[in-house]
Amino acid sequence: MAIFDFTAAQVLTAAQMDNLQANDYNQTVSTKTADYVLVAADKGTRVAMNAAGSTTITVNTDLFAAGDSLAIHNIGAGVCTVTAGTATVTSSGSLAIPQWGSGTLYFTSAGASIWFPSQQGGLHYITGASFSAVSSVSLPTNTFTSTYANYKIIFVVLGCSVGGTLLQFRLRTSGTDNSAASYFVGLSGVNIDAGTVDILRSTSGTFCNLVKLNGTFANVAIIDMIGPVPVNYTNWTAQTFGLNVANNEFGAFSGAGIHNSLTVFDSMTFSPAFGAVTFSGTYKIYGYSNS
User: In a 3-state reduction of DSSP, which class is residue 270?
Assistant: First the structure.
């Protein structure tokens, strides 16, 4: 609904009175398909982002007053990020809006706003993708940021070109994998049908082992990454399991690890043994709410 500019002694029409109620039942919506900079007319409306790739909605100062608000939602496949331009944007949650996500931008002054994401508490979706017949998968740069202290990663391998290959990962900073001999890892697992126990252990390794892959395995690695961004040691726990349909075998591993260096990480790379082996699958990354 557009804002009316009334004058003294003006007589309201029936249509104008109806329009005054319109936003309570049918909010004015403007759809954007590319990066967008908010304008004063967006006050009290809903901005809908619909783009296949990543986009931004920029917030500048002197367009809104204290108490003004607007809604933003994202129906596109690309993540839309609320971005501070000349105004400040404060939030206890993520400023990234995934597909089907939404929230309210509320102004405390002409130059300061607060982003209230509709999703509160629990896990917040950050990013995800599928991959096919590749030798490695790197999460996007700045997947890990100061927005969240801890992260959950669900990494699913649906096929591997060489059976018996180990799924491994390295932590990553500014587009570069960290291959220092600082990975301390302990994993133990059971092959249920064979009744055997396997132990994967490394000290001062240059990567972290997770689980063995086979061409017919549907392997899942669920990783809790603890504190990758602060200048501190990065810790993680991992649960991995998979089913070999051809041999009717089931295996499960559990363990933990630490990167023994005071390093800030913003991403990580997964690979089958960091060799000439390809794999396919999907991944999803979530941030744990800080409150």
Answer: strand
